[in-house]
């Protein structure tokens, strides 16, 4: 009996992920995006992973913490990239194009469509103030880059940000990664939406925008390691 106490897993691994924490996030992403937050329990998450419910709390203190981790997983990297782009000497047009492409690229790189979590009513709760701050920061950067192209009073100020997030409605949510992250390639949808962001501003497309964006992403990732 004593040997069974604290056994973390009821059966063999059944989720994507190299660690129990990653498996929990994968299961939670599926359940939250298909069933919603309120109707998903920690028991269901643990069962989907194949661990005991008590073991789940070793990795996350609550369902809310799991949800917050998933929310920030696609915002924090883009905020870091945006900060790195802000320190570069490239044009506002290229910085905006790169930011739209990078955010879209990230939202396409997950098995489950975690961008759907932004749309759930619970996401507006004060419990997720960290996410709200990061989202506001990212949106402000989008706006400042857009303003540098068309002016601060232009009614199109928010369009590039919403174009980037429109990929949430375009991708599937079936457990298959639409576009795995690659160092030498951008997803076609990311290029299309980044082009559209500049087109709606009547701004010319930067030369070598794909290659230069990939270089900027590599530099930003290196600086943030």
UniProtKB/TrEMBL annotation:
Residue spans binding DNA: 41-60
InterPro entries listed in its UniProt record: Homeodomain-like_sf (IPR009057), HTH-type_TetR-like_transc_reg (IPR050109), HTH_TetR (IPR001647)
GO molecular function, one term: DNA-binding transcription factor activity
This protein's record includes keyword Cell division: no
Extent of the signal sequence: none
Span list, region Disordered: 1-20
Alphabetized UniProt keyword annotations: DNA-binding
One family name in Pfam for this protein: TetR_N
Residue ranges of every copy of the HTH tetR-type domain listed in the record: 18-78
PANTHER family: HTH-TYPE TRANSCRIPTIONAL REGULATOR RUTR, HTH-TYPE TRANSCRIPTIONAL REPRESSOR BDCR
Protein name, entry field: TetR/AcrR family transcriptional regulator
Taxonomic lineage from the root: Bacteria, Bacillati, Actinomycetota, Actinomycetes, Mycobacteriales
């Amino acid at each position: 009996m004593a040997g069974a106490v604290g056994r973390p897993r009821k059966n063999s691994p059944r989720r994507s992920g190299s660690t129990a924490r990653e498996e929990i996030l994968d299961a939670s992403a599926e359940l939250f995006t298909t069933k919603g937050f309120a109707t998903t329990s920690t028991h269901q998450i643990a069962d989907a992973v194949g661990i005991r419910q008590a073991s789940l709390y070793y990795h996350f203190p609550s369902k809310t913490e799991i949800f917050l981790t998933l929310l920030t997983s696609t915002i924090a990297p883009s905020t870091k990239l945006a900060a790195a782009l802000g320190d570069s000497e490239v044009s506002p047009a290229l910085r905006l194009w790169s930011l739209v492409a990078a955010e879209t690229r990230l939202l396409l790189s997950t098995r489950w469509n975690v961008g759907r979590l932004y749309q759930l009513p619970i996401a507006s709760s004060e419990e997720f103030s960290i996410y709200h701050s990061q989202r506001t920061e990212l949106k402000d950067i989008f706006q400042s880059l857009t303003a540098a192209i068309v002016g601060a009073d232009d009614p199109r100020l928010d369009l590039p940000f919403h174009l980037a997030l429109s990929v949430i409605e375009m991708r599937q949510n079936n457990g298959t990664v639409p576009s795995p992250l690659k160092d030498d390639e951008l997803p076609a949808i990311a290029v299309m939406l980044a082009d559209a962001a500049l087109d709606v501003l009547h701004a010319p497309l930067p030369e070598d925008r794909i290659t230069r964006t990939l270089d900027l992403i590599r530099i930003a990732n290196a600086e943030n390691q």
